[in-house]
């Protein structure tokens, strides 16, 4: 397993071949960290790639072509070793391809490329999914970066805020104890002119799932309401998550193209909500950005 560095005068980034995971975002001058360290006392990951599913499957399985397959939550990409296909001064590209093992749980030939580009204080994370097989491919993909909150050990997380790029109230899709969506129980969460205080019990019932293109940018604000991390995306839905009832010192902002099954889901892989369809030989491309400060 190898690690890789991208560095400029503003930021220093660290990556691992394992999961093509972004492992650190550090201010080059001050040494201040912005990404969670992966301490297993709370959560041993930092920014996993979710593929070929996002979230949990109903009964931990799915059906395709009259055959049943099992996949663990968020899929297998985060637990596999990628290879670096290109490294430049300001960018790095990782590749994962279908293997005999992946075909046993996901019967599609694919290439998954993860491109990271560093420009001043902005990181662009671009995803490229290629259908290298002969059949139409069905998949989901998502991000799961964990940012420090509070940013300083002297602060309390409950003094921090989220800021959204719309002032509208948030409509949440609730998640059940078994990790499935409760479609008939939406929750309306008001904001204060687009600001949401990060209260102590905000994540007691697991992730906040926000669907239907309600927002496309989320910022973390310090107690004096200054932004220090902004995640911007085109994804139609996203999650906000921190381990339930653990008072963990980080929160994830997760742009998604897909999500967990609903509790009442009875369909096949092709019918999963927010899923993506990719014809043979075609390419799916999208990206999101992380801006520090």
UniProtKB/TrEMBL annotation:
InterPro entries: Aldose_1/G6P_1-epimerase, Gal_mutarotase_sf_dom, GH-type_carb-bd, LacX. GO terms for biological process: carbohydrate metabolic process. GO terms for molecular function: carbohydrate binding; isomerase activity. Pfam families: Aldose_epim (PF01263). Transmembrane segments: none annotated. It comes from the Bacteria. This is Galactose mutarotase. It comes from Anaerocolumna xylanovorans DSM 12503.
């Amino acid at each position: 397993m190898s690690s890789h560095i991208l560095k400029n005068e503003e930021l220093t980034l660290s990556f691992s071949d394992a999961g093509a995971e972004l492992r650190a975002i550090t201010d080059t001058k001050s040494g201040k960290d912005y990404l969670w360290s992966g301490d297993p006392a709370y959560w041993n990951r930092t920014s996993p790639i979710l593929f070929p599913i996002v979230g949990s499957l109903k009964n931990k399985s799915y059906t395709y072509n009259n055959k049943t397959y099992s996949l663990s939550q968020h899929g297998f990409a985060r637990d596999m070793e990628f290879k670096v296909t290109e490294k430049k001064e300001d960018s790095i590209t990782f590749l994962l391809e279908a293997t005999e093992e992946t075909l046993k749980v996901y019967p599609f030939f694919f290439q998954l490329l993860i491109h990271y580009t560093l420009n001043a204080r902005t990181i662009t994370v671009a995803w490229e999914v290629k259908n290298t097989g002969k059949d139409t491919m069905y998949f989901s993909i998502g991000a799961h970066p964990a940012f420090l909150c509070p940013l300083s050990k002297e602060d309390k997380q409950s003094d921090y805020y989220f800021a959204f790029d719309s002032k509208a109230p948030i409509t949440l899709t609730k998640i059940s104890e078994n990790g499935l969506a409760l479609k008939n129980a939406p929750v309306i969460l008001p904001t204060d002119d687009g600001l949401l205080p990060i209260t102590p019990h905000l994540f007691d019932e697991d992730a906040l799932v926000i669907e239907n293109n309600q927002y496309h940018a989320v910022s973390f604000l310090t107690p004096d309401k200054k932004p220090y991390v902004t995640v911007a995306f085109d994804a139609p839905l996203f999650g906000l998550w921190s381990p339930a009832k653990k008072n963990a010192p980080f929160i994830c902002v997760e742009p998604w193209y897909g999500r967990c099954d609903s509790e009442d889901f009875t369909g096949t892989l092709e019918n999963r909500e927010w899923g993506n369809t990719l014809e043979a030989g075609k390419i799916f491309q999208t990206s999101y950005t992380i801006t520090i400060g």
